[in-house]
């Protein structure tokens, strides 16, 4: 009995001498580093709510989301563009992304893509009130309100000083990092390649502190050829169908520039095309 208590006491001492203080200093360092490196994010709520392992995952996913969204000189010439926005080669002359109205549709999309890439490193005008918080607490009710969601972004109420918040649902934690995805041979498997980074980019796009409000990036609903009733345009297959909705009439569906998941899949498609040398052309077959 005595022995047991002594062992227990020793274990407690080990825990308090070595584990807790050292661990908490290490955690504080991680928080300080995240706050310095990614100033567009309000890190304290995630630090307090998510636990240290998930907090670290969020920091790494934010770092990689910046890589995922690295701007390309000609986004409109990538396979991801063809699949999730539709290449001008399929569109009537002077009616495409580049040619139509002096390229204003393409210019808008490019601007949004640039903002989402830059935002995590630097909040708007460096101001605290524009920072976005990741949340792990009280996610149940809000996640339930959007069945199947990996994360839900909440808009601050008008006139209040609350910030944009991204609630991370159970499904989010099951997606995994881009870099940990098992090799796939072709874009046919895109649907299985949703990652932490993909979800974070999708959610950041909803925040108008990131992308502005013209257009507002939302989750569109539409009637698509594959389903008789209106659906959420969500997932690789539906997003691609949405982009190609009028392809047989040689027209673009410019509405895709308002749908968050089309952007996220554009990035994921191009990322794995480069990573795994798919030689993808973005065509729907
Ligand atoms: Zn969304």
From TrEMBL:
Key words of the record: Signal
Entry keyword annotation includes Transmembrane helix: no
Signal sequence interval, chain numbering: 1-19
GO molecular function (one): metallopeptidase activity
Keyword Nucleus listed: no
Protein name per Swiss-Prot or TrEMBL: Lysine-specific metallo-endopeptidase domain-containing protein
Organism, as annotated: Aspergillus indologenus CBS 114.80
